[in-house]
């Protein structure tokens, strides 16, 4: 009997980190709420990105390493759906897979965490900041060119332990992850998008399915948040036109602007010396993403992207 038949438990594939398990349980709770009586199992997996912690993420393949094994399990029908942080999902998905639902977004912003300094602007000139993100690194160095940004890998608890051990003066994490794990009290300052434009899809949970699985798509329909979906589609389309590489220092944020969306985009050199920004307002997500991508390319974004890929 097919796993997607009406009598089989639905199986959710997910990373095994505490935050990923929270997200999968959040989707599971939504499915049970909308469809009382169905059975839903969570299948945790350890991905290549979870195992390869010694090297900076951008040097070993980017955030896509957190989804490849789960997508393979989905294609091989070992699971019926996969739950991801949308910021980890590459712009180009494997053939035969699609994002069927994007849940209502949490806080999209980055968060400053430190026991020493109230915010990054309070750092001394040689302050040490931990971050695994080229996007965060570039924006921090653009604002505070004297600081030292050191690589920081691992799950949220691991990163906080390294901070508390004194390895860093402060670290930057996604506010959404801290809030979802009940760690909002660790946030010293929420960084507004003007200071740190978020990653594409940050704060949003997506559910990926096989494109031919109409039943699972129907079950997920009530979980999809229309506004969040529009915003993330605009951000992802911008990213796709810029190359769709999770390793690039690219940022984007779409938000409601009346009946329209306002999309802000950024491409930066990893050293923070060059930061390109563009924004546009419109009602069609993909067209908006294209407008902002083209505006960034017109400013010279391709040169930055090519240089990062050569390095």
**Which series of helices and strands comes N to C?**
EHEHHHEEEEHEHEHEEHHEEEHH
* Apparent shape: globular
Quick one: biggest sheet?
5 strands, mixed
Q: Count the beta strands.
A: 13
The assigned CATH architecture of the largest domain is 3-Layer(aba) Sandwich
Q: What is the number of helical segments per DSSP (H or I, 4+ residues)? A: 11
Poorly predicted parts:
1-5, 49-63
- CATH H-level superfamily title of the largest domain: Periplasmic binding protein-like II
Which band does the percent of strand residues land in?
Answer: 15-25%
N-C termini distance: 50 Å
What is the CATH class of the largest domain? Alpha Beta
CA-based gyration radius:
19 Å
Write a structural description.
The protein is of the alpha/beta class and about 300 residues long. It is about 35% helix and about 25% strand. The chain folds into 3 domains: about 120 residues, D-Maltodextrin-Binding Protein, domain 2 (3-Layer(aba) Sandwich); about 80 residues, Periplasmic binding protein-like II (D-Maltodextrin-Binding Protein, domain 2, 3-Layer(aba) Sandwich), CATH 3.40.190; about 70 residues, Porphobilinogen deaminase, C-terminal domain (Double Stranded RNA Binding Domain), CATH 3.30.160. It contains 11 helices and 13 strands. The strands form 3 sheets. The protein has a 5-stranded mixed beta sheet, sandwiched between helices. Strands 7-6-8-5-9 form a 5-stranded mixed beta sheet, with helices on both faces. A hairpin with a 2-residue loop joins strand 11 and strand 12. Helix 9 packs parallel to helix 10. The protein starts with 9 loop residues before the first strand and ends with a helix.
